[in-house]
Amino acid sequence: MSRTGHEWRAEPYRAANTGQVHAALKALARAGVPRGGRFADVGCGSGEVAEAMARRGMTVDASDVSESMVEAARARCAALPVTVEQRDARRLALEPGGYDVVHSSWMLHWLEDFTHPVRTMARAVAPGGLLVLQYSAAQARADGFALRDTLRAVADRPAWRERLREAPILIYQHPADEVSVLLAAEGLAVSPAEPVAPDLGAGDLDRLRATLRAATFAAQAEVLGDDTDAFIDECLTALVAAGALDAHNVCVVARRPPLSV
């Protein structure tokens, strides 16, 4: 995870976001992650993906901006070949050509500029290796950003405006075609982006609220406290009315061609 000015909390995120972890593991399985080799996990959260890859025989370098997430990932992976460091993805550093798999799920849309982290991840892919990205807000630039605009409109209502002045809605649109162009420019063969629908508990309002409190509205929850669910309910109602519920989640898989013999 990576978000400016907000400290992600590992335990509520872990408890509420199993659907996103399962989506990440499913994407990696479909992409054909090998057994053995080196794996980079950017925005590792509380370490579930890092753990799973280490148990496949991979040596994992994981990073996250949140101290809480880093501590949780280190505890989860303490007996495994996993190194976890605290690092802001905006200043990401990875060994060029050093990884058989580079992975990042549900992180990119928290960054205002995707260029440096995506370029760094692309350059870290070894010949014959692969890059797997999952993130939200990947719709075309011309389609606008109704979800973000609707959330910001609710946050600007009199009941919330002053309280949320220090916790604005920060989510950024990175069209999949723009990300794919950058990856191709770095020498990767990019598969068409595919839509992803992680299970966030949409059929269970209490579970959905918990998921949103721990992820999408984590910064706002720190400010609103017991009023967070009321704010979430207003947001959901507004999103339904605006027809803006689609988060435009995608999975992008890219491969670096193997070296010619």
UniProtKB/TrEMBL annotation:
Coiled-coil residues: none
CDD domains: AdoMet_MTases (cd02440)
InterPro entries: Methyltransf_11 (IPR013216), SAM-dependent_MTases_sf (IPR029063)
Record's keyword annotation contains Transferase: yes
GO molecular function, one term: S-adenosylmethionine-dependent methyltransferase activity
Highest taxon in the source lineage: Bacteria
ATP-binding keyword on record: no
Domain Methyltransferase type per the UniProt entry, residue ranges: 41-133
Keyword line: Methyltransferase, Transferase
Pfam family, one: Methyltransf_11
SUPFAM superfamilies: S-adenosyl-L-methionine-dependent methyltransferases (SSF53335)
A single GO BP: methylation
Name listed for the protein in its UniProt record: Trans-aconitate methyltransferase
Organism: Catenuloplanes atrovinosus
Classification of source organism: Bacteria, Bacillati, Actinomycetota, Actinomycetes, Micromonosporales
